[in-house]
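Batch job 17 of 40 flagged for manual review because the log was empty.
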Amino acid sequence: MNLNKYLPLTETTYYILLALLEEGHGYAIMQKVELLSEGKVRIAAGTMYGAIENLLKQELIYAIPTSDTRRKVYHITAEGKTVLNLEIERLSHLIAISNKYKI
């Protein structure tokens, strides 16, 4: 499967995948994203659940079965980790190129 088709990731998707390196439910993901981004990214509930739905369809994350019917818990898949690493490599390349110039 060509995982490059998912790139570039949106900032929201990037942070959600990063947050889901540890399993979490929706509200916990929103809090983790805000923490990881040092408050620069705040995801509204509607945006978050739309992104979660897309990531589930793309099989980049999966829902973990739980007895708590009020909360759905998610985790990144192996393909999701690969896509996240590809994005990190892409961003690192952009930074490396930019660092060659004294802007």
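Reviewer: the log was empty due to a logging misconfiguration, but the result itself is present. The chain has four helices and three strands. Unflagging and moving on to job 18.
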